[in-house]
Design a protein that fits this description.
Layout lengths: L1 H27 L3 H132 L5 H18 L2
């Protein structure tokens, strides 16, 4: 009986210890043995998740973050290069416009100069043509006048001969010569 009492005493002391433990945790609604088992399970699951899930996910997130940051940095640099290129383009366009304007002004000046030169050449050619026409007219007038003088002289001779037919040849010659001299003197 003593062993049984001892066993009962040990069992009661274990139960009292268990009850005392259950009293503190029991008042909170927690079973100590179950709590420890759950704590071990949680630790194992947390370790497994940390080792094979959270670390790779965190690593991927860090890689993604650095990739996004690099992309943003590259985008900013590209934006700056684009702005610089636009500024250069505006500068080039402005320079080209100034050059085009100066070429246009020079072309207009050259056109005016060429126009004045052509006008002067044309005027000189016209003056030469007018002078040539005047010389031709003067020459033709002189030729016509000379031809007319010859015709008139011939008519005077014919008329004088008809008038003086009955005169001697010396008198006739003298009258014809006088008529011709008179004609030349009056310069008809």
């Amino acid at each position: 009986m003593a062993v049984t009492q001892e066993t009962q005493t040990v069992s009661q002391s274990t139960e009292s210890a268990h009850v005392a433990e259950n009293d503190v945790l029991g008042t909170l609604g927690i079973d100590g043995t179950l709590f420890i088992a759950q704590l071990v399970n949680f630790t194992i699951v947390a370790f497994v998740l940390w080792r094979w899930v959270f670390k790779p996910v965190v690593k991927k997130l860090d890689e993604r973050t650095s990739s996004v940051e690099k992309g943003l940095k590259d985008a900013e640099e590209a934006q700056k290069r684009l702005e610089n290129a636009e500024k250069e383009e505006r500068t080039r366009v402005a320079t080209a416009e100034r050059k085009a304007q100066s070429i246009l002004v020079e072309t207009q000046k050259l056109a005016e100069t060429m126009k004045a030169e052509k006008l002067a050449e044309t005027k000189a050619e016209m003056d030469k043509a007018v002078e040539a026409a005047r010389a031709l007219i003067k020459n033709e007038r002189k030729e016509t006048y000379d031809a007319l003088r010859k015709d008139i002289a011939g008519l005077i001779i014919v008329a004088t001969e008809k008038v003086v037919r009955g005169l001697d040849p010396e008198a006739r010659q003298r009258l014809v010569t006088e008529a011709l001299n008179e004609f030349e003197k009056n310069d008809v």
